[in-house]
Amino acid sequence: MPGVVRALSGIPPIFMPPRKAHDGCMDITTNQNSNEETHLLRRSREGSMLAGVAAGLADYFDVDATLVRIGLVALTLLGGAGVPLYVAAWLLIPEEGSEVAIAGEVLSHSWHR
């Protein structure tokens, strides 16, 4: 059948060179970007209007905070999802300089009582 296809199309089949075996050790995970700082999602204090959610998301995704705010307003007007999403992000995303979000603090205090 391949000969028939080649005869009909006039184009030789795509040649794929054989793959070589992997030379490296597969039991160690390496990070090629080890010089780069890990960028964590945090609520931003700088440029924040309410709780810093939009500014933090904008910083994390490297977009303008105004675009995030417009998106949240659009979600609010087109179905009301913007406000619950903002509140959920406010509770779940830690503030800059903090390792624990507000929800984590509330839950840890309730467990220690």
Distance between the termini: 75 Å
Q: What is the string of helix and strand elements? A: HHHHH
The main pleated sheet reads as: none
Number of H- or I-type helical stretches? 5
Rg calculated over all Cα atoms:
26 Å
Percent range for helical residues?
A: 40-55%
Coarse shape: extended
Number of strands: 0
Unreliable stretches, pLDDT < 50, 5 or more residues?
A: none
Percent strand equals under 5%
Question: Topology, pairings included?
Answer:
Elements: H1 2-9, H2 53-61, H3 65-77, H4 82-92, H5 102-111
Q: What do these coordinates show?
A:
The chain has 113 residues and is mainly α. The chain has a domain at 40-113. Helix content is 45%, strand content 0%. The chain is built from five helices and no strands. It has helices at residues 2-9, 53-61, 65-77, 82-92, 102-111. The longest helix has 13 residues, at 65-77. The chain is extended, with a radius of gyration of 26 Å. The N and C termini lie far apart (75 Å).
In short:
By secondary structure, this protein is mostly helical. The chain has a domain at 40-113. The protein contains five helices and no strands.
Please tag this protein with its features:
45% helix, single chain, mainly alpha, 5 helices, 113 residues
